[in-house]
Structures are given as structure tokens and as C-alpha cells.
């Protein structure tokens, strides 16, 4: 893990960027969010200033109830199976976790840019829910969740939990340049989760920001760093 830019890491980034000048960028939104989130749309507009299309799949698939990490990975896999060009995945929160698992399998993913990624999500998030609520969720098989993308409460199947708990993040071993932005004051996913992920993974660079989970106030800073790398692609 590195915290500040170093020559070795920068050269590693440059190598991957030069592999293919027609790289595609895919943005994966977070849990209970949508392609129309403030962050997703701001990045789409910023990429447009460079004449680069930013693909933003809807991970809800009009079926939030049956959402699982596996389903999200499978959905993104459909974009990658026959893609000849290199791909850069940008993932926010649970979208970041999805990106990490997807990149483990598909070698045409050449870089990860993760925004407050939800590492250790199925432990940390569950600990934030009181035991009675968890017991009722498990018993009734669904829980009402406020969905920011739809601006309403929606039911979510308990399968979301049982599926997520089958993933062991210690098995994520592919050496792929990974840039993580995480707020020091993240109230949803503690920055310690990114520290733990980056530890002993020398291909990961963690940038700590004075922000919260949303990181919307840091988009200009994040974009500046992304933009510096785009020039090697286009």
C-alpha cells in the first residue's frame, strides 16, 4: 500500500494505461443508489468534457428486492465477457466491492478506482443494525430499506446477507493497480476497512480525504487525479 504517489506506482499505472488507448470506463453506483445519483452524474459530466463516455449500469435492475452481490457481479460480467478493449472500473461503496470481485475474474479490467469501497460490508453494516431488526429480517425474509435512488422505502430479501457472507475478501489476490479514495470521517464504511484491504497489497494506493461517505465535496480533487491518468488513454 502507498499513501502518496511514488515513482514505482506511477510507472505501474502508466504501463497499464498504455496497453490500450481505447479503454472503457464503467461506473458502479452504491447500495440503494442509482445511475442518477449526484456522484454518478457529476462524474459522467466530467468525463464528457474529455469526450469519454462513462457507462453507468443500473445495478437495481428494477428489482431491488432480489439484489445480491453475486447478481451485481454477474451483471457487470455481461459487459466484460466479449469486451476486447481494456476496462477501468470506478466503484462507489458497494459498487466498489463489486468492482474488486469482478476484476479478480476478468483480466481485461486493467485498473480499479474505488470510492469509499464497502470492504467488510457484510460485517460492519450488520453491526450497525440492532439485533431485533436482524432477527425479524431473518425470520420474515425481508427488511424495509430506504432507497435513495427511488426516494422511498423498499423491501430487500435476506438473501442479500446470506449471499454476501459467502465472499471472503482475503482471497482477492489479483495484482491490479487500485486507487482508493476514502473519507476520514466516513460514517457508513469506516476508513479502517480500506486500510485493512490495502495492507499487504502493494498494488493498492489509498488516498485519505477530509470527507464523509458521500465524497461529493471531494469530486474536484478526485477528478483531478483521475484526469491526470486519462491523458495516457486518450
From TrEMBL:
Pfam families: UPF0227
Lineage: superkingdom: Bacteria
Gene3D superfamilies: alpha/beta hydrolase
Descriptive protein name: Esterase
The organism of origin for this protein: Crocosphaera chwakensis CCY0110
